[in-house]
Amino acid sequence: MALSGLAIYKLLPQTNCKECGFPTCLAFAMKLAARQVELSACPHVSEEAKAQLDSASAPPIRLISLGKDGYKLEVGNETVLFRHEKTFYHQPGLFFRLRDDMSDEEFARRLDQVADYQIERVGMILRPDGVAIENSSGSTEAFAGRVSQAVGKELAIILISPDPEAMEAGLKAAQDKAPLVYAAGAENWEQMAALAHKYGAPLAVRGENGDLEALANLADQISKQGVEDLVLDPGTRGWADSLAALTRLRRAAIKKNFRPLGYPVITFPGEGSGSLEQETMLAAQSIDKYAGLVVLDSFEPAALYSLLTLRQNIYTDPQKPIQVSPGLYEISDPKTDSPLLVTTNFSLTYFSVAGEVEGSGRPAWLLVADSEGMSVLTAWAAGKFDAESITKAVKSTGVPDKISHRRIIIPGFVASISGDLEEELSGWEVLVGPRESIGIPSYLRQLAKG
Length: 450
Ligand code: SF4
What we know:
Elements: H1 5-11, H2 25-33, H3 47-57, E1 64-66, E2 73-75, E3 93-99, H4 104-116, E4 119-121, E5 124-126, E6 130-134, H5 140-151, E7 156-160, H6 164-173, E8 180-184, H7 189-199, E9 203-206, H8 212-224, E10 230-233, H9 239-254, E11 266-267, H10 276-288, E12 293-296, H11 301-314, E13 327-331, E14 340-344, H12 347-360, E15 364-369, H13 376-381, H14 387-396, H15 399-402, E16 407-410, H16 418-424, E17 429-432, H17 440-449
Parallel strand pairs: 3-6, 3-12, 6-7, 7-8, 8-9, 9-10, 11-12, 14-15, 16-17
Antiparallel strand pairs: 1-2, 4-5, 13-15
The chain binds iron/sulfur cluster (SF4).
The site of iron/sulfur cluster (SF4) has 13 residues, from helix 2.
């Protein structure tokens, strides 16, 4: 049961020592009640109070880990309904289903596809998280064999089988990878809970047709058996019913702090779709609201790219823009007479500009000014990308010693600072480049022609 700010305050030392970063214990208590701080920020809480406060400060959606050695995935631990309220902490894991009755070649090919896929976007490596191996053959040996094949890869694993005997064989084959056991339903929950307990694995609890009351009862029964690392499947597969169920689950956990539904949710977009496009859109809906694990059936790199990009955009902290280090970057081995461009250190801006310069095939210097991670226009509006900050960047990075000319190209969006910049950078010529980075290659071509 969640405690109020005042109830939490009564359990704190009440010394107002400020070590937690708040001026008073009451201010800290109010933040703790709103789950906006961690209890560990106060070093003076007694063990007795800690025991009582731990439940109050526990996140409303439990943190669940899949995998141990090689690759570990964490999902859950979310505290808000909407990202702009604070942030989302753990991006949903993207899995691909492999069936154990696939041919050897097909299984190995699909496994490699998932394990090997990765892309770099704004300086971050994006990749799928794992495979969900389904016991479609009904054979215990075949299932265990396929799981053994996946164990050596850097992937988290979900085991799908209704049969406790096959599941145990899969768990043994998965060794210490802590795979997710999918799933405990009304008919087999006792055996599946016993297996999850025995092997220290998280357990998915499957409901029927979005009946959340029955799902909560089942999850509650299982947690009372000592299996607390749960994942929920509300049993919905279509567009509207999935969206409704996942939203109700999230609201029950976050707004009502209803513990029996306070677990990450798993979805299977392929089961509610008739085509790759529909599956991808349904997966996008799951990523938006509010899945913790998404199991896909179709592996198509272009579709996966779009889902990884969506996930990255939603699960970056809106309060901490992704940044690159300010400095002078060399692109395509520039010479002293190569052009010098300047931009901000917002990661997306940097990679867009750097990518276009590189794509132009023309060597250049790219000066990245410290704009506190803001894009060009935002930084300009905030006074973080102006004549003064660009001049500071030019001087602090030793640009004048590295290039023989005195010309600097500024983004077209901040053409208005060119006069001020020429005053600050005495003796320099300020050129106004294109507004969008996509215009850089043709701009550099024209520049080279003189
Ligand atoms: Fe109170 Fe603890 Fe914060 Fe000190 S660190 S002000 S005792 S809550």
